Amino acid sequence: MLKQRLITVAIVLPLLLAGMFLLPNSAWSFLLLAPAALGALEWAKLAGLSGKLRNSFVACVVLSGLLLMLVQWRMPSQAANVAAWVYLLALLFWAIVVPGWLYFKWRVSAPALMVLSGWIVLVPAWLAVATLQKSAALLLMLLLVIWIADTAAYFAGRRFGRRKLAPQISPGKTWEGVIGAVIAVLIYGFGVGFVLQPDANVYDRAGLLVFICVLTTFSIIGDLFESWIKRQAGAKDSGELLPGHGGILDRIDSVTAAMPFAALYFLQTT
């Protein structure tokens, strides 16, 4: 499985980085609609949506993306306000609704609620990754926080894992994995801070580390939430598109929760 994971990363990562740094923002945003649509198909399957409802949900996700792109092109003065509301909706969902969903282990089967949840999972994350590509270096640094946390949690959990994080949701995740993830991203944050802002004061450095820790927390919540949705559906993976990784949702679960927060943060600070 690890070999398959590495081969998939070796193929997908260069393509991702090439698109991130070489494509104009409009092309990047448009191409990102493809994984968003595939993620919508996987969500529809996990949610038990079929037939016209499944197709309508996928179409809604894609059309929402196209509409948001149109707002950015035709009404640039309003685009930031629209994006802020989309990110705020996602932030409330991930910070309030999902923790309650996981704590009480809700098994939601109502199609309308699953459609709404799927939209909030996919569209704000698509918008965040699409918009942040205007500064490709910033987007990469943010994604590295998520990737480093995920990788460190995997290896720390395998090596030191004893205490289960949420055994009824995702039995493989441990508190030792979480600690490993936090240590790894803090080291990364220290390094990035000293390279980019060598003269920053202690408050700025502390603020950066707090931001990174919050981003990591959201990434863990996103991972747990997708695990719970899969458990409710009786599925091991969301799909089989990426060998060794599962489906699109299996790879972007952390991104869906973390990136809207990051985009809202940088939207407000700029």
Précis, in short:
81% of the residues lie in helices and 3% in strands.
- E-strand count: 2
Number of helices: 9
**Shape descriptor:** globular
Taking the sheet with the most strands, its summary is: 2 strands, antiparallel
* Class by SSE composition: mainly alpha
Low-confidence stretches: none
What is the count of structural domains?
1
What does the average pLDDT come to?
Answer: 92
Helix content: over 70%
Strand content: under 5%
- Terminal Cα span: 42 Å
Gyration radius over CA: 18 Å
Sequence of strands across the biggest β-sheet: 1-2
Order of helices and strands: HHHHHHEEHHH
Brief descriptors of the model:
270 residues, mainly alpha, 9 helices
Which helices and strands occur, and which strands form pairs?
Elements: H1 2-22, H2 25-47, H3 51-74, H4 76-104, H5 111-132, H6 136-160, E1 164-166, E2 170-174, H7 175-196, H8 202-233, H9 248-269
Antiparallel strand pairs: 1-2
Give an overview in words.
The protein has nine helices and two strands. It is mainly alpha-helical and 270 residues long. The protein has one domain. It has a two-stranded antiparallel sheet with strand order 1-2. 37% of the residues are buried.
